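Write out this protein's structure.
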Amino acid sequence: MGMLTWLSPYRVELELHGAAPGDFVEGPGYDVLISQRVAEAYQEAGLTGLLGFNPVEVVRVRSKRKGSAQGAIPPYFAVIACFGRGAVDEARSRIRRSEPVTCPECRSAGVDSVHGFTLEPDTWQGEDIFRPRGKRGSLVVSERFAALVHRHGFTNMKFTPTEEYVWDPDGKGPPASPHAESG
Protein backbone atom coordinates (compact mmCIF):
# COMPACT_ATOMS: atom_id res chain seq x y z
CA MET A 1 0.00 0.00 0.00
CA GLY A 2 1.11 3.52 -0.56
CA MET A 3 0.34 6.74 -2.31
CA LEU A 4 -1.48 6.84 -5.61
CA THR A 5 0.69 7.05 -8.71
CA TRP A 6 0.64 10.34 -10.61
CA LEU A 7 -0.57 9.50 -14.11
CA SER A 8 -0.35 11.36 -17.42
CA PRO A 9 -1.10 14.08 -18.36
CA TYR A 10 1.47 15.69 -16.07
CA ARG A 11 0.17 19.20 -15.42
CA VAL A 12 1.20 21.45 -12.54
CA GLU A 13 0.62 24.83 -10.99
CA LEU A 14 3.83 26.21 -9.51
CA GLU A 15 4.21 28.56 -6.57
CA LEU A 16 7.21 30.82 -7.08
CA HIS A 17 8.73 31.75 -3.69
CA GLY A 18 11.92 33.33 -4.97
CA ALA A 19 12.96 35.49 -7.87
CA ALA A 20 13.17 32.60 -10.34
CA PRO A 21 11.91 29.02 -10.62
CA GLY A 22 14.15 26.40 -9.00
CA ASP A 23 15.79 23.43 -10.66
CA PHE A 24 14.22 21.07 -8.12
CA VAL A 25 10.58 21.23 -6.99
CA GLU A 26 8.73 18.95 -4.61
CA GLY A 27 5.76 17.44 -6.38
CA PRO A 28 2.76 15.38 -5.37
CA GLY A 29 3.37 12.18 -3.40
CA TYR A 30 6.85 10.83 -3.98
CA ASP A 31 7.26 12.71 -7.28
CA VAL A 32 9.66 15.60 -7.70
CA LEU A 33 10.09 17.97 -10.60
CA ILE A 34 13.51 18.60 -12.06
CA SER A 35 14.42 21.17 -14.66
CA GLN A 36 15.63 20.16 -18.07
CA ARG A 37 19.11 21.35 -17.03
CA VAL A 38 19.16 18.85 -14.17
CA ALA A 39 17.73 16.04 -16.30
CA GLU A 40 20.37 16.51 -19.01
CA ALA A 41 23.31 16.81 -16.60
CA TYR A 42 22.09 13.83 -14.53
CA GLN A 43 21.74 11.60 -17.59
CA GLU A 44 25.02 12.79 -19.13
CA ALA A 45 26.84 11.98 -15.87
CA GLY A 46 25.35 8.46 -15.85
CA LEU A 47 23.86 8.83 -12.38
CA THR A 48 21.28 6.35 -11.07
CA GLY A 49 18.17 6.33 -8.92
CA LEU A 50 15.72 8.65 -10.70
CA LEU A 51 12.88 7.04 -12.60
CA GLY A 52 10.31 8.41 -15.04
CA PHE A 53 11.53 11.61 -16.72
CA ASN A 54 7.99 12.46 -17.81
CA PRO A 55 7.59 15.92 -19.42
CA VAL A 56 5.43 18.28 -17.34
CA GLU A 57 3.15 21.04 -18.57
CA VAL A 58 3.22 24.10 -16.30
CA VAL A 59 -0.30 25.51 -16.59
CA ARG A 60 0.05 28.36 -14.09
CA VAL A 61 2.67 30.09 -11.98
CA ARG A 62 1.72 32.04 -8.86
CA SER A 63 4.23 34.34 -7.26
CA LYS A 64 4.42 34.37 -3.46
CA ARG A 65 6.63 37.49 -3.47
CA LYS A 66 5.26 40.89 -4.35
CA GLY A 67 7.02 42.49 -7.24
CA SER A 68 8.97 39.41 -8.30
CA ALA A 69 9.48 39.38 -12.02
CA GLN A 70 8.48 36.09 -13.56
CA GLY A 71 10.83 35.13 -16.35
CA ALA A 72 10.73 32.13 -18.61
CA ILE A 73 9.66 28.90 -16.95
CA PRO A 74 12.09 26.09 -17.75
CA PRO A 75 10.85 22.75 -19.04
CA TYR A 76 10.32 20.33 -16.14
CA PHE A 77 10.24 16.56 -15.84
CA ALA A 78 8.41 14.49 -13.22
CA VAL A 79 10.69 11.88 -11.66
CA ILE A 80 10.58 9.54 -8.70
CA ALA A 81 13.62 8.64 -6.64
CA CYS A 82 13.78 4.86 -6.36
CA PHE A 83 13.08 3.05 -3.13
CA GLY A 84 16.55 1.76 -2.41
CA ARG A 85 17.76 -1.25 -0.47
CA GLY A 86 19.79 1.02 1.81
CA ALA A 87 18.31 0.62 5.29
CA VAL A 88 18.41 2.88 8.33
CA ASP A 89 20.65 1.41 11.01
CA GLU A 90 18.44 1.45 14.11
CA ALA A 91 21.33 0.85 16.50
CA ARG A 92 23.46 3.75 15.22
CA SER A 93 20.66 6.24 14.43
CA ARG A 94 18.96 8.68 16.78
CA ILE A 95 15.29 8.02 16.14
CA ARG A 96 12.54 8.46 18.73
CA ARG A 97 9.71 6.01 18.11
CA SER A 98 6.25 5.65 19.64
CA GLU A 99 6.15 1.97 18.64
CA PRO A 100 8.76 -0.62 17.71
CA VAL A 101 9.64 -1.52 14.15
CA THR A 102 7.79 -4.69 13.18
CA CYS A 103 8.35 -4.77 9.42
CA PRO A 104 12.00 -5.38 8.45
CA GLU A 105 11.27 -4.11 4.92
CA CYS A 106 9.70 -0.66 5.43
CA ARG A 107 10.99 -0.01 8.99
CA SER A 108 8.68 2.99 9.25
CA ALA A 109 6.66 2.37 12.41
CA GLY A 110 5.97 5.21 14.84
CA VAL A 111 8.68 7.77 14.05
CA ASP A 112 8.22 10.77 16.39
CA SER A 113 11.54 12.48 15.71
CA VAL A 114 14.86 11.97 13.97
CA HIS A 115 18.11 13.50 15.23
CA GLY A 116 20.54 11.98 12.77
CA PHE A 117 20.60 8.64 11.04
CA THR A 118 23.01 6.32 9.29
CA LEU A 119 22.54 3.39 6.96
CA GLU A 120 23.33 -0.20 7.82
CA PRO A 121 26.68 -1.23 6.36
CA ASP A 122 26.45 -3.09 3.06
CA THR A 123 22.76 -2.26 2.41
CA TRP A 124 23.27 0.72 0.06
CA GLN A 125 23.60 -0.52 -3.53
CA GLY A 126 25.21 2.61 -4.98
CA GLU A 127 22.20 4.58 -6.21
CA ASP A 128 22.98 8.27 -6.56
CA ILE A 129 19.57 9.31 -5.23
CA PHE A 130 17.11 7.08 -3.38
CA ARG A 131 14.62 6.74 -0.53
CA PRO A 132 16.05 4.46 2.17
CA ARG A 133 14.15 1.78 4.04
CA GLY A 134 13.13 3.29 7.36
CA LYS A 135 13.23 6.89 6.10
CA ARG A 136 11.33 6.78 2.81
CA GLY A 137 10.12 10.36 3.25
CA SER A 138 13.69 11.57 2.76
CA LEU A 139 15.86 11.63 -0.31
CA VAL A 140 19.42 10.44 0.25
CA VAL A 141 22.02 11.34 -2.35
CA SER A 142 25.54 10.20 -3.12
CA GLU A 143 28.59 12.44 -3.12
CA ARG A 144 28.52 12.18 -6.94
CA PHE A 145 24.99 13.64 -7.03
CA ALA A 146 25.89 16.45 -4.61
CA ALA A 147 29.01 17.27 -6.66
CA LEU A 148 26.93 17.43 -9.85
CA VAL A 149 24.53 19.90 -8.23
CA HIS A 150 27.35 22.12 -6.95
CA ARG A 151 29.30 21.94 -10.20
CA HIS A 152 26.30 23.10 -12.26
CA GLY A 153 24.89 25.53 -9.67
CA PHE A 154 21.46 23.90 -9.59
CA THR A 155 18.98 25.66 -7.32
CA ASN A 156 16.38 24.79 -4.70
CA MET A 157 18.30 21.87 -3.19
CA LYS A 158 19.83 21.81 0.27
CA PHE A 159 22.07 18.97 1.39
CA THR A 160 22.32 17.89 5.02
CA PRO A 161 24.61 15.07 6.14
CA THR A 162 22.40 12.22 7.38
CA GLU A 163 24.11 12.33 10.80
CA GLU A 164 22.97 15.98 11.15
CA TYR A 165 19.45 15.58 9.76
CA VAL A 166 16.76 16.67 12.24
CA TRP A 167 13.01 16.16 11.93
CA ASP A 168 11.13 16.88 15.15
CA PRO A 169 7.70 18.38 14.38
CA ASP A 170 6.40 18.05 17.96
CA GLY A 171 9.60 19.12 19.75
CA LYS A 172 10.03 15.77 21.52
CA GLY A 173 13.80 15.91 21.25
CA PRO A 174 16.24 13.10 20.59
CA PRO A 175 15.96 9.69 22.24
CA ALA A 176 17.67 9.35 25.61
CA SER A 177 20.31 6.95 24.26
CA PRO A 178 22.29 7.12 21.01
CA HIS A 179 20.15 4.39 19.46
CA ALA A 180 16.47 4.13 18.56
CA GLU A 181 13.94 3.92 21.37
CA SER A 182 10.28 3.18 21.85
CA GLY A 183 8.01 5.27 24.02
